[in-house]
Structure formats: C-alpha cells, structure tokens
Amino acid sequence: MSEQPRVLVTGAGGFIGSHLVKYLRARGYWVRGVDIKLPEFGPTDADEFELLDLRRWENCQQATKGVDQVYALAADMGGMGFISNHHAQILYNNSLINLHSLEAARENGVKQYLYTSSACIYPEHLQEETDVAPLKEADAYPAYPQDAYGWEKLISERLCMHYMQDYGIETRTVRFHNIFGENGTWDGGREKAPAALSRKIAIAKLTGNHEIEIWGDGEQTRSFCYIDDCVEGIYRLMQSDFAEPINLGQDRMISINELADMIANAAGIEVTKKHIEGPQGVRGRNSDNSKLREILDWEPSVSLEEGLTKTYAWIEEQVKGSGLNMSAGR
Ligand code: NAD
C-alpha cells in the first residue's frame, strides 16, 4: 500500500511481540509475525503469521525473506522462577535463535535489526543492595551477569555490534527493565512478578483468603514499565540512528512488598504477606534513563498505578475465566 518498510516481528506470539505487531499495524506497516506458538490471548494482528522454530537455520531464512526490518523478540524466557532454574536450556535455545536470526537477516539483505536485550546483562555486584544506584548502559562491563539468560543476552548484543561493524546491517539494541501489562503470561511458571502477584491477589479476592505468598523478604527492589511505553520506545529506537545498547524502563524503584500493596489497592483489598523461600534474582535494580532521554528525547510516562490497575483488571478476568483452576496454584 505505501512505501512503509516490510517488517518481521519474531516472538510475535508472545507478550511484547503481540503488542508490537498491533502497534506497527496501526501505523500502516506490513507485518509478518513469527513464533513457535500462536498468540495465547487472541488472534494476531499480523498480515501474515508463520509458526516456525527459530532455533533452526532454514526457518530463520524463511522468516527473514522479503522484509526490510526485523524486531527480534523471540526468546525462551520467563520470570525469576524460570530463569534461575533453566540455565542450559536458555543458553542453548536463545543462542541458536539469535545466531541464526541475525545471520539469516544479513543473508536476506535486511536493512535494520532491533535486538531485545535485558537489564539481566548487568553485573551482579552492582545490584547487591536494595537501595542501588540506577544502572547506566556503560555499567555492563566488566561483565558478570547473574544468570545464563543475561550472559546470552550480552553475547547477542555483541553479535549485533559486530554484524553492524563488519557487514553494515543497522542494528539496534534495547535493554528492557521489567515490562508488564495485559496479555502477558500470568500462570504456569514463566510469569514475572507483576503478573504472579496480580494472580495471587485475584485469587485472594475471589476466595476471601487474603494471605499471599511472596518469595524472599519482599524488600528486593525493581522498576516496572508498562507495555504501551515499551512498544513506543522500541519503535522510537528503530527510527533513531543509535546503534549502542540503551535502557528502556521506568526509573521509579519500588520493593516487591510495595508492588504487592499497589496491586492489592487496584484490587480493592488488603492482603497479608507470607514470606517464603524462593528465587529472588538480584537484590536491587533500577534503570538510569539519562541516555534514553538524551537519544530519544522521550521516556516512559504511564504511571505504575495506571499500568497496574489495567493489568490487574485483565488478570482478574483471566483468573475468573479459569475457574480458579491454575497450574501454578497459589
Ligand atoms: P514472551 O515469552 O511472552 O515472548 C517470547 C516469545 O518467543 C514467545 O511467544 C515464545 O513462544 C517465542 N519463542 C521461544 N522460543 C522460540 C523459538 N525457538 N522459535 C520461535 N519463537 C520462539 O516474552 P516477552 O516478555 O514478550 O519478551 C520478548 C523479548 O524481550 C524476549 O527476547 C525477552 O528476553 C526480552 N525481555 C523481556 C522482558 C520483560 O520484562 N518482559 C525483560 C527483558 C527482556
């Protein structure tokens, strides 16, 4: 229809990917979505959707044919419960996906390639206190990520950098800090803290038992960014000419206990927190958004309260629809 670039979104069956497809379609792009699974919570908005396992080279060749831009979101990932228990699987699967996707994009003449990295690449020793200094992009080195997930992301960041230097494909690299929102995984073991707590609080509200379990003492800190800001930021980064890694997140740091209270507030109930043993990740983490503001002249603006209210409402509906019959229990 227009001279808009033709776009591939990998991981288009997942949380951020399905929102990004919708965003790009609304801007008039022709979009191919690729994933190993269909979107879980509704039909895709993509012009074309292919079910492909991107660990396989020939599937990456097929996926990247005839497109100008790639947004590379496919990954074997989840919250701390998943990431801290599947190191080998994550390193193996995500390495294959990223090596093959980028090389196939190069071979097929893709002009721009945006890679989705993570705050998990930052060294563990900078994140040992709850009241940590926000992480700047340059803090990534000397490298010491906590988990295999972060190590793989860091290597793939470097792969993008070298492909740009050696082959001229224009790469972009974004480091997300805890993205949350509707249509994200909320049950089954891969869900992240905002979704897991929303599920627990929805169950508490619906059953009348207001005790919820929290992993660790709940004083561990993070920042959380709503999905609408995330896709806006990804899009703006692709339009920019900035090729180095850049943070994308909110810089409002709160504890997991505070997060639970905010969600309970959105649910209109009070909860009692039972602190139990469980994987917590690093002790504290926040995003330094100086570069984001400088480069994109923009930063996330949806408040945590607003984002959590929308997300909670959606998850409460999912919990009701499931008849409280969930695999991850409480
Ligand atoms: P998600 O799990 O919802 O989406 C990832 C998608 O990749 C899934 O739909 C999955 O089926 C697909 N996938 C996995 N293996 C595949 C394969 N072999 N072939 C094809 N597709 C495959 O996760 P998300 O939250 O939407 O994350 C998107 C990207 O952003 C990922 O690269 C993730 O590591 C990164 N990220 C996300 C966050 C966050 O807070 N959500 C934080 C940091 C980084």
Name the CATH architecture of the largest domain. 3-Layer(aba) Sandwich
**Would you state the CATH class of the largest domain?**
Alpha Beta
| Structural class based on helices, strands and sheet pairing | alpha/beta
Total tally of structural domains: 2
- Say which molecules are bound, naming each kind only once: nicotinamide-adenine-dinucleotide
Oligomer: single chain
Describe this structure in words.
The protein has 330 residues and is of the alpha/beta class. The protein has two domains: 6-179 and 224-248, NAD(P)-binding Rossmann-like Domain (Rossmann fold); 182-223 and 253-284 and 302-322, UDP-galactose 4-epimerase, domain 1 (Alpha-Beta Complex). It has helices spanning 15-26, 57-63, 80-83, 87-107, 148-167, 193-207, 227-239, 256-267, 290-296, 304-321; strands at residues 6-10, 30-35, 48-51, 69-72, 112-118, 170-176, 179-180, 211-215, 221-223, 225-226, 245-248, 253-255, 272-276. The strands form four sheets. Strands 3-2-1-4-5-6-11 form a seven-stranded parallel β-sheet, sandwiched between helices. Strand 5 (112-118), helix 5 and strand 6 form a beta-alpha-beta unit. Helix 6 crosses helix 8 (256-267). The radius of gyration is 19 Å and the shape is globular. The protein starts with 5 loop residues before the first strand and ends in a 9-residue tail after the last helix. The model has no long low-confidence stretch (mean pLDDT 96). Nicotinamide-adenine-dinucleotide binds next to helix 1, helix 4 and strand 5.
